[in-house]
Amino acid sequence: MARVFSGIQPSGELHIGNYLGAVENWVRLQHQHDCLFSVVDLHAITQAYDPATLSQRTIDMAVGLFASGLDSERAIVFVQSHVPEHAELNWLLNTVTPLGELERQTQFKDKAQRQESVPAGLLNYPVLQAADVLLYEATLVPVGEDQLQHLELMREIARRWNSRFADGFTFPEPQALLSTAKRVLGLDGQAKMSKSLGNTIGLFESPETIWEKLKPAATDPARVTRKDPGNPDVCNIFTIHQGFSPPDTIKLVAHNCRTAGWGCLDCKRVLADNMIAALTPIRERAEALRAKPRTVTDLLRGGAAKARAIARRTMGQVRRRMGLLGEADG
Ligand code: TYM
Catalytic amino acids? Predict the structure, then answer.
């Protein structure tokens, strides 16, 4: 069985972009592999945030993950800051990470240009991400396409640490695992679907809101009138169909788009019905879990204990290889 690790920031909203790009895949993988999934609160604080709401957002994200189908009996689900070894390994890996590689990361450049004063934590963000995965010697990392550059750097960090310190213990080089919806665009059809851009459909949205949001959503820009044939390959609504509709419907959608048999609104209505059918049980499970916050924090505490047992073993190896004096050493 391969070891799988992935993380999600407690951004306040689980939306269909990160659901189709990552979380849905996590739910499937927990039946096949040895999986750890983390709500990465230490990553979330690298950008402006409100300390008064972070802990609630962390719980909300965990609720979303459990409601989506993660099962604490099958996967280790935990909060990153509950396992302090993440921050420790982050520091140790900083010492083998080239500064130039960090400065080249497109996510860093994008986020840095949006703020006046850039915290060092934002630059070191991908090193913490490397620590997350390497701490558990995970080999598979199910993510959306926007994380591929971070994955490449993670492999580079593993290689550098291995060539400098390995002695019977090496970090495996993790591979990204992409889903079919590896890049879901926002409803504007312009940029990646993202909470910070306000172009999302949330996972817990009501059936009415789902339809209201889908109606004006961007489709193939070349399809101007109802009679114009469309190209599903460049249509974000088609990408979302692939996440929510069964294979025969997807074929029908593609055919009716190319032949102008359906207008975009007809296509969206079919999508709305399939999305509502898939998301309603998730929304209902989330409502039930929100009524029992203690159950959720108990599950997270149990997850952190299991994660920490693995993390401690790795850190023992890493500290020794790096020459740090052990507390128990004579
Ligand atoms: P985050 O919190 O931004 O997103 C969580 C996951 O959802 C994917 N995703 C998308 N996929 C397709 N289309 C979209 N519009 C879309 N939006 C989000 C992301 O690719 C991601 O897989 N740095 C990471 C969190 C992280 C992590 C890790 C991931 C921290 N440590 C270790 C993997 C391994 C992030 O900000 O994801």
Answer: 111, 192, 195
